[in-house]
Amino acid sequence: MSHSGTHDKLIYMANQIATFFSSQPRESQVAGVANHINLFWEPRMRTQLFAVLEDEGGKGLNELVIEAAKQIRRPEKVN
Description:
Structural class: mainly alpha
Helix content: 55-70%
Oligomer: single chain
Number of strands: 0
C-alpha cells in the first residue's frame, strides 16, 4: 500500500515535529519528537504512524521520526 493520499498529512505533521526539534541539541531531538507524539497524538494517529513505519519502511518520514518510534507508545489493538 502506498502512502500517497492516505498518510500524507500524517507524514507531513510528523516531519514538522521533527523539523521543530532538529534545532535542539541532538540528545533532545529524538526524545522531543517521541514525547510530543505521545502527548498530543491520539491512538489512531499513532497506529497510522506505525503502519507507515512497518508497511512502508518509514517512506517519507524524517530520520528523527523513525528513530523516535522506539520511544513512541504503541496503541493497544482492539479486537
